[in-house]
Fold:
Amino acid sequence: MKRETIEKPNQLPEKRELGKWFNRILDMADIVDYSYPLKGCGVWKGYGWSIRNNAIAIIRELLAETEHVEMYFPFLVPENIFNKEAEFIRGFEDEVYWVTHGGLNELNEKLVIRPTSETPMYCMFAKWIRTHADLPLKVWQVVSVFRYETKTTRPMMRVREVTTFKEAHTAHLTYEEAAKQVEEGIDVYSKFFDALCLPYCVSKRPKFDTFPGADYTYSFDIIFPEGKTLQIGTVHNLGETFSRAFNITCKDTKGEDHYVSQTCYGISERAIASLIQIHGDDHGMVLPPGVAPVQVVIVPIFYKDSMEEVEGFARTVYASLSSHFRVFLDNSNERPARKFYNWELKGVPLRIEIGAREVRKSAVTLVRRDTFDRVEASVDNLKEEIENQLENLEETLRKKAWRHQNANTHSVASFFSMEQEDAVDVLLDDHGEYNGGIVKVPVCGDNVCLEMLSKYVDVLGVPYEKEKEVKGTCICGSPAKQVITVAKMY
Amino acid sequence: MKRETIEKPNQLPEKRELGKWFNRILDMADIVDYSYPLKGCGVWKGYGWSIRNNAIAIIRELLAETEHVEMYFPFLVPENIFNKEAEFIRGFEDEVYWVTHGGLNELNEKLVIRPTSETPMYCMFAKWIRTHADLPLKVWQVVSVFRYETKTTRPMMRVREVTTFKEAHTAHLTYEEAAKQVEEGIDVYSKFFDALCLPYCVSKRPKFDTFPGADYTYSFDIIFPEGKTLQIGTVHNLGETFSRAFNITCKDTKGEDHYVSQTCYGISERAIASLIQIHGDDHGMVLPPGVAPVQVVIVPIFYKDSMEEVEGFARTVYASLSSHFRVFLDNSNERPARKFYNWELKGVPLRIEIGAREVRKSAVTLVRRDTFDRVEASVDNLKEEIENQLENLEETLRKKAWRHQNANTHSVASFFSMEQEDAVDVLLDDHGEYNGGIVKVPVCGDNVCLEMLSKYVDVLGVPYEKEKEVKGTCICGSPAKQVITVAKMY
Structure:
């Protein structure tokens, strides 16, 4: 059923107008305010910051389980430290901010605001690592980093102050161990995105799109509702590039000096931008329970003659749940319909309605945010019922998101073809407009062919999960030896 | 009993050499590494960062209880926003870092790295506040701020990157409400320092030492073991200074426009520096349970014939405690004495020793970090026993710290006196060396007299807790009307 809508300035646009919808949600649901007078910098408001902190708590637990140590490295980097690795500098020289003055004085040495923390971290790794007993070293931090974006900035997706850059950095005795660590990084991020109910496609980026200084880069890409993909995480094997530049060596068991092998991997607030845009609907956000600041909202429905009973009962229900869930009892003077509207906008997974009828039956009505299904639950096993409902909702969100991702991931026999459906047919509609999705394209594997393809589409790379069978023809006419994923990226 | 010590490079100096002791502890206990190649910037290592995060969790709870909303405001401030309030600029122009270049380009407008967040916050307050219904607005954040310190930097106490600046900012309809909010701020910080077992003296700073732009400033000062005081928190009533500069107005119930009245208050990692230095002893840190990354460490004591039993029993004990406390089972191959040394250094409040004897008796031996008292506890009520011990240890730390603060807070009849003990007698020893402590000095209250005193000592200000009775003579010869606290500050 199509809802009739009258466009009002304060109203949420329909979800299919994704960009407008997202910008309005950020404002209406107190997520981030981008009216700050500096391009690409926003103010995280209370509700948004709480979602963000809940997401960090999830990754913190995953990183603790895998013995990563949380630390904090300085924000400013002296020029001579930043400039130690040539390829890295080339990758970042156009997009770093320089601090040149302290007070009224010009500084003796310019300072870089970290665009990512390889350089401030690795100058310390060189001091800390002496022998193989100091390895593996696995550290992480969540910090603000800055990129002087010259492209158009986009709320939470392309910003100048990346406020929630979660970066992990590791050092190992051998290259093989670093390669193994890349797999652990991919596994940790997979679990993190699973917890956020976000699907992903992991690809090994082509050489020309590898992180500056890295041997190879894996990337997590998600397909947005309108079809474009967004990179939401990267995992890099740095090999010995930085250990040679920073002279990070360690003695092996025979007392011989080696350069360590390194990895690093990062995610950012793009994960939050994604979960809002992937799961939301025309009513607003739908938050996975793990990150929802309020998991259950209790809305008492007052009639004059039952006011006291209902309020008392609502308080009892609140008290019985508040040590198990993040619960909010909305006792404000708004009308219930208004409260429903507000909490639906804010994506609260479960609503509990309590009126006179519920009090009489010693029960509550549970309403799910994703399906709006209503179910009556006795107070006797309410905790278990809520646990089930939240679990089910989470599973439903995850499956739905994966269905969209899978439905928009296609395989073709070749990139261009006169006979069969090709990548262009899939990516573009009849009017030449972008259709969206990811297409798996057979290629010979030669870098020249990848560069050729990258003139037409964004090349994501070779899928992390091996294809069972490779068929078809490369753009160069040779028989395909592998498959790569291509798309249109944000 | 004096311990005989041989100075070894890696050994902890005695606590009475406070500066040396503190620097060694920071390194040996993995707190902060100041060998980063930029003056006044350090790397928080795992154990230190965990202490810091536990402390933040305490203040987060106190601020949530008092309805402060956690947000995040941008790190960079455009020059024209920073320059809106003249007195504020004068206070900070010597100590801010300027960003002048993005990539290879000079920026159109210079950007300040926030030294504190009045300006980035208040330009947003002006957008957010419309009517009295939007008030009070109470927000906070914990962030890095930068000060271009030209004085000698000191680990965690005077740094260039203040990594843990917890700042709260509020806006109110009336000046009276702002004044009330100052009291709430003082109350919240008192509870925070209580949780850290830290004593404090709250004083209203003299006019010449008030925060730039504030009407008045209250400060929390703590007396360090060697007698100097350190400012560990401040609470400011900003009145309408900033609301006029940033045009933050609101309509009252009659629809009339008013400038809002504002407050702000801050604490920093100085709280961590203090708790390490106040509670520590010759063996290392002694951490209050609330901030200890490990509250209970289990050390199994193996003998060949009982190894399996002991290990099994230790695991059972660990499993029974791990959901109630932050417990660590030290199963490493180090000798027990070495483990004791390490965990004493790291200030773990309680140690559990388990050997063959304990297994036989189905009991454990508990050793307190502060007193080294040993007590046997049955496994049957171990949780309760540990709760009691931790509570008692916390209370003991708090009392001991307050005893030192009170013993070093003196009252005199006048600042200089030929007849009686005066402030100079108390503050200096017979050799003219600084003795330490805080002295309460009777004054007439005139600013000229305070400025005169500030040439000899640091004037902390008028105590927040009213003196019962004021006697004595001011430096100018007039009878005293109030008391002020003076000291020598870090």
In short: Chain B has a mean pLDDT of 94. The two ends of chain B are 31 Å apart (CA to CA). The domain at 409-487 of chain B is CATH 3.30.110.30 (Translation Initiation Factor IF3). Chain B touches chain A through 50 residues (CB under 8 Å).
